[in-house]
Amino acid sequence: MLDTLITSKTRIKLLLKFFLNSKTSSYLRNLESEFGESTNSIRLELNKFEDAKLLRTSLSGNKKIFTANTLHPMFSDIQNILMKYTGLDKIVEQVIGKLGNVEAVYLVGELAKGLDNPIIDLIFIGDINKTYLLNLTEKAEKIIHKKIRFVIFSEDEFKIQKSKILEQPHIEILN
Hints:
Number of helices: 8
Mean pLDDT: 86
Largest sheet: 4 strands, mixed
Strand order of the largest sheet: 6-5-4-7
Distance between the termini: 30 Å
Order of helices and strands: HHEHHEEHHEEHEHE
Strand content: 15-25%
Helix content: 40-55%
Oligomer: single chain
Low-confidence stretches: none
């Protein structure tokens, strides 16, 4: 649906990259290798976002680093649209909201890096009924047309693994 409204695939990739996980930062050459597209097409889109003040920039040596402008009045709206586009809003509504003792949920993997992917990787922390979670996951997959993979940690297990897990790109969905 988003690709009907926004015809530039590069623009969609940049929106996902910077607005799904607002902590993401990157520079032009890195985006070129990540997206597999020419620097010129990426630069044009970055310039449009920068002109609209949707992206902030800083310099690190000779690299211009881009990050989402979380203070932009449309930031939350854009992020909500991307949550709907990726199906994360439905996961929160259909799965997480009905599980019971969920302490935290993190999105990891490609989507957390801001890359569109047909698989959603989640980490659940808490005392969760696995059978019920599987049932809810199957229902959510039909609604969002994406596969959902998950790992469940007890609070104690997560404390042991936390630093290793959270050093990778992640989005805190519930805490």
